[in-house]
Amino acid sequence: MIDKEKFHVLNYIKKEEYTASMDGMRYMLKKKEEEGESRLEAVIWPEPYCYAKTEEEKKLRKEFPFSADGVTQAADWLNEQYEAQKEFWKASKTFY
Length: 96
Hints:
Oligomer: single chain
Order of helices and strands: HEEEEHH
Distance between the termini: 22 Å
Strand order of the largest sheet: 1-2-3-4
Largest sheet: 4 strands, antiparallel
Number of helices: 3
Strand content: 25-35%
Structural class: alpha+beta
């Protein structure tokens, strides 16, 4: 699970995509610009492949405000997705 008290990645995401994994669930946080507005996009997908090698239909996306509060909301969503599909994520680890 992501510890929101220690999850301070906003300054990193301002310049780079942030990727990590959590027991079979891979995820990415990135800055997204649309019509002059910055948004935070969170993407999750199953292991074993990286983002670029995973089929688009296996990815799930959600957007949040591009702010510290948005990072907290994204962490909550990531934790919820992990818990809701825990067996799926763990099973995806067994394929490699």
